[in-house]
Amino acid sequence: MGPFERRGTRPASAKEEAGLSSNTTTTTLPPDDISHRLWRLARDALRLLVMLATTFLGLLAITFFIGRVVPIDPVLAIVGERATQEQYEAARHALGLDRPLIVQFLIYVKDAATGNFGTSLLTAKPVLDDIGRVFPATLELATIATVLGVLLGVPAGVIAATRPGTLVDQIIRIVGLMGYSMPVFWLGLMGLLIFYGELGWVGGPGRLDTFQEMMFESEVPRHTGMILIDSALAGAWDIFRNALSHIVLPAGVLAYYSMAYISRMTRSFMMNELSQEYVTTARVKGLPEWRVVWVHALGNTLVPLVTVIALSYANLLEGSVLTETVFAWPGLGLYITNALMSADMAAVMGGTIIVGAAFILLNMASDILYRLIDPRARAAA
Amino acid sequence: MFQERLRGLAAALTLGLGLGLGVAPAMAGTPDNVLVIADKIDDIVSLDPAESFEFSGNDMLNNIYDTLVELDPNNLGPLVPGLAESWSVADDGRTYTFVMRKGVKFHSGNPVTAEDAAWSLQRAVKLNKTPSFILTQFGFTPENVDERIRAEGDKVIITTDKKYAPSFFYYCLTAVVASIVDKKEALAHEQDGDMGYNWLKTHSAGSGAYRLALYKPSDSYILEANKTYWRGAPAMEKVFVRHVAEPATQRLLLEKGDVDIARKLTPVDIEGVKGNPDIKVNDEVRGRIMYIALNQKVPPLDNPKVIEAIKYLIDYDGMAGSFLKGAYVVHQAFLPKGFLGAIDDRPYKLDIEKAKALLEEAGVGPFKVRIFVRNDQQRLEMAQSLQNTFAKAGITVELRVGTGKEILGQYRARKHEIYLGAWGPDYPDPHTNASTFAWNPDNSDEAKLTGILAWRNAWPAKETTPLVEAAVVERDTDKRRAMYEKIQRIHQKVSPFAEMFQAIEQVAMRRNVEGFVAGGSIHSAFYWTVKKN
Questions:
Q1: What's the complex ipTM?
Q2: For residue B372, what are the domain limits?
Q3: Fewer CB within 10 Å: N-end or C-end of chain A?
Q4: Which of A208, A210, A249 to mutate to test the interface with B (most CBs of B within 10 A)?
């Protein structure tokens, strides 16, 4: 079974349970000694590599060709509107944009394979450096938002599922619906206005205040690019607290959307579980209600729930342009959007690769989690 | 037990949020010795003065580099000494001599010499990037520039290809492209004979009031004061410019005192902060002119009576009084207020009946036309206003909206019908706009003079081209002024351009900020004059 597919709770047929296959001939399992294990491992690794390579190649090819076909002129972005035709042509040639599309693409792939992801037209810096600067900002935000979304959304969904149709359930559903319907732009500005502007409870836009930003640049060594982690590692607690006060609001806004989605899905999965016979059996056997709900029922929803959470996290990792705009948060969303508007394809491709890599890694992590959570998945492996 | 674990989790969460929430009040406000500015700086493409041609980049470079001659921020207009302490032009009208100021050092510690000055100018010509036309229009080419621009001892000798109005030449030397770069420092970082180009895209090597300490594209930049600046160290030790894309966010930051200056507030935001006792708003007329242009390749836009009719179909006062209030004033000539030769004539106003009569005289019935405009709120509103007023005379307008680069590409290729956009001057001399609005040496498609607006609109400019060429060499300033006034009046009558508005920059700042100059209509921003009380 591939990732992101729901493993159902279909009862196994009696015959399968007894270990008999439907054929009359029994197939012999392959020998389980070291050399065959290694062979299988190598074969799986190769399959994984081929899958990764094809996925990335496909992703890059599509992005590349769309970028070249779009009627935005990347050369104009650099030379500006005063350039003479001659300067324009010179710049176009210097960027290699006068070569055939296929050649440009192959050159890009070859460079990428050796770690050279090109130079951004807009920032004049290597795309790798740029991504190293913007992705940690998005990673920090997305991680905290997802954690908050899970911590709030899962319990909310469970509570709503155990009291269907009551006021509590209605409230949770309405709050969730509001989450889908409110524009993030508006919510962010309102949050800033109320919690920063009027009440002064949280830090303002940007990742740090001026003073802390200058201290961070000059005194904190860069390990991950994530301010919370780097400042904690360096023991710069002033900066850590300031960064926390700045991330609370944007993460909260994004968490609201995460929470809305996660709580609805949790509620849906839970209601499905709670209608199963084993739940009645457990209750009849005398288990405390909280155990039935939070351990057994919730436990059985974990596999699809992990899928939902992984999807929600991956979504945030793409960067949320509107949130980043409102909160002046220099993340991946703004980076890719600005690059797209100027057809800065090296930057767009770099951004696409990192997002693709994030999706694939999350896929693989989900797979591993399934095996840990679900004993049947372990046995099937 | 699970319940307890859940409670423990909730406690940890509350603690974390509390930590985050509890610290903000203590840290608000900007440090006393740092000037914090909220701006939009995502237009910066390069920090090399030979290449930088964007507003935000020029704002930064104006404070990092010096030029031979400069403008005084407190009195924008007359020339004052920069890195040249005196200058003169020989009787032949072509040979200029600049005597270098003594004892000035670059940020690196290297002394500023005539050799650095000559090399910087030669370099700008040889690299031939977009702003190089400001210098090459004087006849310098990569082949001849080494002898035309020379260093001799402490003097820089420059020979132009013909006689020009000296003020024209000097004003061009105040532009960012004529910045004096530290030759030793730039060459120390040279790659493949690029004269330091690749390094200077993201680094600085100047002699100005500030040095570049940190640059994060589309994020922020930090400037540090040059303590041995030849004009005296600037009052603000650091300048921190933050990229804040959303004007409402800039406004919040300013109101909370987390930035000292907010440069991109909309008229609505300005109205909102006007009552705030901690904030003041400075209005400065800027050089940008908002105009529409009619592509002469598209009938019936090439009919003179149709052109005139369209100029009567624009609701100048209506727009300036409503959604453009505070951001633009009505201005109907191509030289912005503040330039030598600028006029205030307003021959046109909204007059539907007159427009209808003119269209009838032209024998043109109702027709359809497309206005090409970039996807920017203000411009879209202007385009919609035009759509409304044009319709009253039988002209149906369809809006062709796109991103800036997309629409610009079509404009440069002469593929538009009506273009709505803005033009900002490149240097403080009237020739900058005259040479693009009213001058067209070759109207053919092959000439591809994509930098000239008259060419983009396929307008041969027969009436004004010779006048522009005469005005740029006129040495008597009063005569020159009169010539530009005459050119604009002719232009207003016969050209396919309808200039509509001149931009105003409303800079909102905390009350204790003094001395910030955005640059008026002719220059870029000055940070080194700022102090906070």
A1: 0.79
A2: 287-503
A3: C
A4: A210
